[in-house]
Structure formats: structure tokens, C-alpha cells
Amino acid sequence: MSQPQETQAPPQASGRYSKRKRAQINYYEQFSDSEDNLSDHDSQDVVKYSRPKKSKRAAHSIPKHKTFPFLQLPAEIRNMIYDYCLMDPAGIYLAATTKKYRRTVERLPPQATNLPGYPHWTSDSDRDDKSEPEPEPESRALVPSLLAVSKQIHQESRGILYGNEFKLLDPLAMHSFLVDCGPRAALLLKKVTLLRWSAYRGMHKGYNHSAFALLASATNLTQFRFEGHLACRSLPKWVARQIYRDAFPWLEAVGAAKGQVDAAVTLVEVSRRNFQSSWYNRRETSDTNPARDLQQFREELSKLLCARQKMMTSKKPLKKAAKGE
Fold first, then answer.
1. Around Cβ 248, how many Cβ atoms within 10 Å?
2. 116 phi and psi, to 5 degrees?
3. Which of 46, 48, 188, 191 has an alpha carbon within 20 to 30 A of 227's alpha carbon?
4. Which run of H or of E encompasses 145?
5. 261: part of which helix (H) or strand (E)?
6. Which tens digits make up the pLDDT trace of 110-141?
């Protein structure tokens, strides 16, 4: 007979509740050394490529419905805008300077007479002690870049810009200004004032003649004024000879363009201080007559121009060559 098997009683749990068998949870990943070595080996096989450069986006033009139709304005209104942007009633004062190793000009305010390094100039009206000097108008900020907007605006506004009165400090400034302008723009010039004359034996004296050689393209001038002292004798004929010696290229060019030899004589104005025995800021003496001096000056200048024309047009018989030569 088989003997009955003994059954084992289940273990008694200690405590109130029985202990459950739960799997232990880890909140981090376990890596073995072999996995680390494998990852290092795989990282060596990774090829790194540079990020492609982003192409620059082209500048988007302003939509047509947002642009102002400037050219559709009436011509009268456009001219008013041109006058405000390109015209200065006080004139444009220019002095020679150097920018990036290039000779050019810079604009000066009308009050530049009080700045150090610039000479003091006065007009004829300032020489009268009884008259009070008029306040100089403030210079207006111009926008010459307006001419580069379009061809139509350039054609409409260039005459206004070059129609200003350009007041040049000395012949060096005049030379630099005309080099920048070029022959085409020089044809548009209307009024030019030379505030100072280079005299004596300075280096800039050579620019007296060179500046007027470039001015030969400006045959449409309506006025050229010598404001400074010419450093010559005060007799009107000597003043005319001094101007003719250095300015004859422009004087003859105007005569050729106008069809009259002495056409430029009426365009030239000279400060009356040049007709006085002393050119310092003093009152006029009783023996001077501004109208008479100016008339004598123009007569002498016309005489010099006509004499040159007669010499060029005269036909002299050629000398016969001697026998045996």
C-alpha cells in the first residue's frame, strides 16, 4: 500500500499583508562595456557633412501699388520739388579738399568767413560804413542724388542744380570743381563767383590759368564775378590785362560760341576794390568812379580780344625763298 504523502503547509507571511514578488524597475538604461565600445566604433564611421550655405534672398522691390507716382504729377509741381531739393538762394560755397587721394571740393556754409583757415571776403555792399550788413541766409541742404533716380528726372532737374550761383574759394577749388563736373555739365553753369585770386609766387598761382582753361566749356555763363583782389595795379587797364592773361581761354571760347569776339566782356564783373589804390577794407576815395572804372576796364578787355582776332585773321604774304636755299 502506498503511503500518504505529506503536504507542506504554505509559509506564513510575516506581517499583516503578504509580500508580493515584483520586478525591480530601473529608471536608467544600463549599458555594458561592449556596447560602449561598439558605439565608439560606429561613431568613427560617421561622415560629417558641412551644412549647405543658404542663398541670399534677392531684395524684393516695392509693389507698384505702394510706389508714389512722382512722374505723373504736373510739371509745375515737379519743378517746385526740384527747386526745394536742388536750389539754394544763398549760393553754393565750395572749397578745395582731398578725399581718398583725390582732389575734389567740399561745400562750406555761407558763414565760413568766420571759420579758421579760410580767408575773409566781403562784398562791395559791406564796404560802406553807413549801410548795415544784411544777414546772410542760411544754406539749404541739397539732394543732388535726385538726378540719379531716372533719366527723365535727370533731364528735368539738372538745369536747376547747375543754375545755382557757385561761389568758389580760389582757382584751385574752381579747377577741382570743373574736373568733377566735366564738359557736359559745364555747359549748364550760369553764375560763377571767384572769391579769391591766387597771387604772388605760391604753388596755387598756376591754377589761375588752368582753371580758366577748363572753364572754356562753360560757354553759357551769364555772369562771372571776380570778388577778390587780383594783386595788380589799380588802374582799370591793368586789371583787364591781368584777367586777360589768365582767363583768355574762356573769353575766346565764349566769343567763338556767341559769334562775337568780345561777347564775354559784358559777362565779367570785377569787385570795385580792384580799382582803388588800397584794396583793404576802407571807404572809397573821392577820385574813384566805379562806373567809369568798369567802363574803362571793359574797353581795354575788348581791345585785347579784338587785337588777338585781327592777328589771327590777317594774311601776311609769305616771304619768297632765296635762290640757292
1. 19
2. -70, 145
3. 188
4. none
5. none
6. 766 544 445 444 444 444 444 555 666 677 88
